[in-house]
Design goal:
Length: 289
């Protein structure tokens, strides 16, 4: 929705020329959200699709709307007991730490909470998701009462593609993985960054782009601030090539997940063998285009 305010027509006009985006409001079904989020239903299965070619799923749609809103309205609050409401609020707060949470009964909400609030900001919206705050090192306070925690994983050597593929398709050590996202680096594709995104029962991975290490410096952005950002991530001998993943969930075994990821990294011998040897490692990931 917010992006439509930036689109210009043939005359150079956009919605922002005639209207102000004041507040992004998301309404969450308090009685059914956690069940819908953890299921892996497609929008077609849920009867909410825009047509037969709409391949989106409920979890992705929910998390997109939650992570970028300013106000979260929880409907049917009168149908949920205190324990369920506490868990729901804890999950929502982890996904979007900055949104105002308002529980509603019979759809009642004070208008000054959703109209003319002045809360919306494009810059803030881009930085709002809980996973992004965790990745930047702005740790989101954990809601221990409901076992919700978050952590980030970083490494400066590539994953063995076969081992990492098996991990992604395996059992995530119990608990409930609510949200995970980030970038990964495969030994067989050293110049490319892979992207991982999971919400509820749905996960995706694929091509994210090229690491700056693989791009001639003459083709880097001229903007000093952007170059500074690149160098903040730089560490020889591999430059900005790295693993950078964030995990948010309930009752997660962080130590086991970290250990499993570490075991997916190439061994010391494989690392020293170099990129030419890495190319011969088995790689079950699809071709990236």
């Amino acid at each position: 929705m917010a992006e439509t305010f930036t689109f210009e027509d043939e005359s150079g006009q956009s919605l922002s020329s005639v209207a102000r985006l004041d507040t992004l409001v998301t309404v969450v079904d308090g009685a059914n959200f956690l069940t819908q989020y953890r299921e892996a239903k497609s929008l077609i299965e849920a009867g909410e699709s825009l047509g037969e070619e709409d391949d989106r799923n409920v979890a992705d749609l929910l998390v997109d709307q939650i992570e970028f809103c300013d106000v979260l309205l929880i409907s049917k609050a009168d149908l949920v007991d205190d324990e369920q409401m506490g868990e729901l609020k804890a999950v929502l707060r982890t996904l979007n730490p900055d949104a105002e949470l308002i529980a509603m009964a019979n759809g009642q909400v004070s208008l000054d909470k959703v109209l003319d609030t002045g809360r919306f900001s494009f810059e803030r919206a881009q930085l709002a998701p809980g996973w992004l705050k965790e990745m930047r090192g702005d740790h989101v306070p954990e809601t221990e009462e409901y076992g919700i925690s978050s952590f980030s994983y970083h490494a400066r050597r590539p994953f063995h593609p076969q081992k990492f593929h098996e991990l992604l398709h395996g059992d995530w050590f119990g608990g409930k993985l609510l949200r995970s996202k980030g970038f990964f680096w495969l030994a067989t594709r050293p110049q490319f960054a892979g992207q991982w995104s999971q919400a509820g029962g749905i996960a995706h991975y694929g091509y994210a782009g090229m690491f700056w290490k693989a791009v001639p410096e003459s083709r880097w952005p001229d903007d000093p601030e952007y170059r500074g950002y690149i160098m903040e991530k730089w560490q020889e001998p591999f430059g900005d090539m790295r693993q950078e993943l964030v995990f948010i969930g309930q009752h997660l075994d962080e130590a086991r997940i970290r250990q499993a990821l570490d075991e997916c990294l190439v061994s010391e011998a494989e690392l020293l063998a170099g990129k030419q040897a890495w190319a011969s490692l088995p790689d079950p990931f699809p071709v990236w285009e």
